[in-house]
Amino acid sequence: MKNQHLILFFIATIFSSCNKDEEQMLISNQELNDKYEVVASGFTIPWGIEVINEGEFLFTERLGKLYHYKEGSTKLVANIPLSQTVSSGGLVFGGLMDVSLHPNFATNNLVYICYVDRDYFLVVAKFELINNFAENLEIIFNSDQFSIGSRIVWQDNNHFFL
């Protein structure tokens, strides 16, 4: 619901800006820039993101890396499996796709990722996030079909959709 409000805000801003002169639009854009800041940059294809709490999140880069942003610093999460990307017509598919926290992450530190393996099959793995390291990594689903990506959405503490 929060994202819908944000999208509606941007649509309303665009439409209301159409009726303003150029100077007023510059002021409006500056006001927007004052409210938002870039907290991490320099990544090739950032893809999935999972917010842990205010000022802390995990995000994937399609080329196979998982990052942990906390307290103004971005660290690479070690021990993430190799993923495979497919390039076609200048587009990149597959790779490390989504990252998702278990609904009880606050007590169990479990993180789930989905990625495309070397055979271009979809894989889901879970691990404990401990000091920016993927501990006890376990593959819990391995498809035998070609795939170029997926998302993870939780239904409850024990079930998710891919």
Secondary-structure-based class equals alpha+beta
Number of domains: 2
Main β sheet profile: 4 strands, antiparallel
What is the CATH superfamily of the largest domain? TolB, C-terminal domain
CATH class of the largest domain: Mainly Beta
Low-confidence stretches are 1-20
Return the CATH topology of the largest domain: Neuraminidase
Level of helix content? 10-25%
- Beta-strand share of residues: over 45%
End-to-end C-alpha gap: 21 Å
Q: What is the averaged pLDDT score?
A: 81
**Total number of β-strand segments?**
12
Order of neighbouring strands in the sheet with most strands: 1-2-3-4
C-alpha Rg, in Å? Answer: 19 Å
Order of helices and strands: HHEEEEEEEHEEEEE
How would you describe this structure to a colleague?
- With 162 residues, this protein is of the alpha+beta class.
- The chain folds into 2 domains: 1-36; 44-161, Neuraminidase (6 Propeller), CATH 2.120.10.30.
- Helices cover 21% and strands 45% of the residues.
- It contains 3 helices and 12 strands; from the N terminus they run H-H-E-E-E-E-E-E-E-H-E-E-E-E-E.
- The chain has helices spanning 2-17, 22-35, 105-108; strands spanning 46-53, 56-61, 65-70, 73-76, 85-88, 91-94, 96-101, 110-116, 121-130, 133-146, 153-154, 160-161.
- The strands form 4 sheets. The chain has a 4-stranded antiparallel β-sheet, with no helix packed on it. A 4-stranded antiparallel β-sheet has the order 7-8-9-10, with no helix packed on it. Strands 5-6 form a two-stranded antiparallel ribbon.
- Strand 1 (46-53) and strand 2 (56-61) form a beta hairpin.
- The longest helix has 16 residues, at 2-17.
- The protein is globular.
